[in-house]
Amino acid sequence: MPVPEASSQAPQFIALVLQSRHDPARLREIEYLIRNNAFSWEGVLRFTRQAALGPLFYHTLRDSNPAFLPPAVMEAWRQDYYHNAARTAFIEGELERLLILFQQQDIPVILLKGAALAFTLYGNPTLRPMMDVDLLVPPEQASAAIRLLESAGYDDNHNEPHIGLTLAYESQIRFVRRELTPLLLELHWHLLDVPYYQYRLPLRWFRQSARPFSIGAASACGFGPEAQLLHLAMHMILHHRTVTWMGMQDVAEIIHHYHGTLDWQQILARARQYELLLPVRRVFLATSRTLHPPIPPSFLVKLQALAPSPREIRLNAWLTASPSVARRFLIDLAGIPRWRQRWRFAWQHLLPSPSYMRQRYGLRSPWLIPLLYPYRWLHGLRKTRL
User: Fold this and answer.
1) Are 353 and 161 in contact (CB under 8 A)?
2) What pLDDT, on a 0 to 100 scale, did the predictor assign at position 2?
3) Owning domain of residue 167
4) Which pLDDT value is given to residue 365?
5) Percent of the chain with pLDDT over 70
6) For the residues of 337-353, what is the DSSP string, one character each?
7) What would the DSSP string read from start to end of 75-111?
8) Per-residue confidence at 91, pLDDT binned at 50, 70, 90?
9) Could you give the CA distance from residue 220 to residue 171 in angstroms, rounded to a whole number?
10) What are the residues facing 112 on neighbouring strands?
11) Are residues 154 and 272 located together in one domain of the fold?
C-alpha cells in the first residue's frame, strides 16, 4: 500500500504507533492525537489490515494500557495477532521441513524479505505477517530446487512458451501448496524480474553477506543488513513501484537492530555501483520522514547529492511507469547484453510453442493456432502490465 498523504490524522497515528515500538515516549503523543482529533476508526482498522500491521499494532499497544483506544479496535487487532500467530507457526514448521530437504540435497538457500526478517529482527515472528515465502537459490541449482519443491508437494502450474525460457530469462517461479492451510512460495534464482539487473547485479556479493540463523531444527540464512536494505529498496520500487508501510517498517527494524554497526558508506557505494541510487533514495527518504529511524544525516545528504547515471534514470522511469506488455517486452529485450540471446528471447516470446498456445487459449483444433499469433501480438500491444 502506498504511503498516504501526511496531512490526515490517521497516517500520523499509524506512524506514531510504529515509532513507539522503539520509542515508548511516542505513546503520549498518540494519546494526545486521539483525544484532540476525530478519527474514523473503521478506516484506521481497514488500513492497518490492508497493510498487514494489525499484529504489530496489537503487540505494541496491548501493554500500554491504551484506554484512549476503542475496545473494539483493540479486539480486532488482537484477532489479527492470534490468527497470524497460527499461520506463522505453520510457516515455521513448513520452512523447517523444506530447509532440511534442501540441506540434504546440498542446495544452498537464502530466505528473502519477510521470511528472513520475521525470524531474526522482530523478536516475535508473529509481528511480521508473510503473504508468501521467498527463497533464493543459485541459478545453476534452480532446476534441482524446482524438482525438490515438486516432490515436497508444491505445484507451480507454470506453462512455459518454450521449455527452458523461464530459467533462462525470468527470476522466479511461484509455487502453491494446496492443503488445509495453503501456502504461496516463490523460488528465486535472481533478485529482480528485470533482465538488465539479472545480467549486471552481482549475486555473489549479496550471497557472501549472508548470516546464519535457525528455524526449529533447520539452519537458515538471510542477507546481511547492508544487502538486506538494498534488496528491500529495489524490490519495493522496481517490483511493486511504491513505498509500502511494511517495507518502511522492515527498513526501520534493520536500522534499529544494527544501529552503530551498519556500513553506511558501503550502502552508498553499492547503490551507485549497481545503479540502484533512485530506489534507495526514495525508500530511505520516505522511511526517514515517516518513522524516524537513526539514519545518519550525513548519509541522507550524500544520498541526495549522488547523481544517478542517465541509464539508471531511464530504466527507473520505464520500470516504475506501469508500462504496457509491449513496452515491457522492449525494456527486457534491451536489457539483454548479447544479440544472440536477444533473438532467442524475442523468438520464444513472440512465437510460443503449439502446445503452449493450445493450453493457454484452450484450443481443441490445431488448425486455429496460426490465427492466434496475430491476436496475441495485438492483445499485448493494448494490454497494460499489472
Assistant:
1) yes
2) 45
3) 96-317
4) 75
5) 95
6) -SHHHHHHHHHHHHS--
7) HHHHHHHHHHHHHHHHHHHHHHHHHHHHHHTT---EE
8) very high
9) 21
10) 134
11) yes
Q: Are 102 and 161 found together in one domain?
A: yes
Find out whether 121 and 148 touch, Cβ atoms under 8 Å: no
Cross-strand bridge partners of residue 220: 213
Can you tell me the distance from the alpha carbon of 320 to that of 238, in angstroms, rounded to the nearest whole number? Answer: 6
pLDDT score at 158: 78
- Which amino acid would we find at residue 234? M
Whether residue 90 is contained in a domain is answered as no
Burial of 11 (0-12, 13-18, 19+ CB in 10 A): middle
Grid cell 523461464 in the structure block, residue: 166
48 within a domain of the structure (yes/no): yes
State the pLDDT at residue 323.
66
111 shares a domain with 75: no
Q: φ, ψ for residue 173 (rounded to 5)?
A: -135, 140
C-alpha cell at 335: 536489457
Domain boundary among 317, 344, 359: 317
Which has the closest alpha carbon to 220: 325, 97, 342? 97
Do 110 and 162 sit in the same domain of this protein? yes
User: pLDDT per residue over 26-54, tens digit each?
Assistant: 999 998 998 888 888 998 999 999 999 99
Residue where one domain finishes, among candidates 285, 317, 349: 317
- 59 part of a folded domain: yes
In a domain, 301, yes or no: yes
Same domain, 200 and 295: yes
Number of separate domains in the chain: 3
8 Å CB contact between 255 and 217: no
> Which DSSP category does 366 fall into?
G
Count the neighbouring beta carbons within 10 Å of the beta carbon of residue 96: 17
Q: How confident is the model at residue 8 (pLDDT cuts 50, 70, 90)?
A: low
Q: Are residues 359 and 270 in the same domain?
A: no
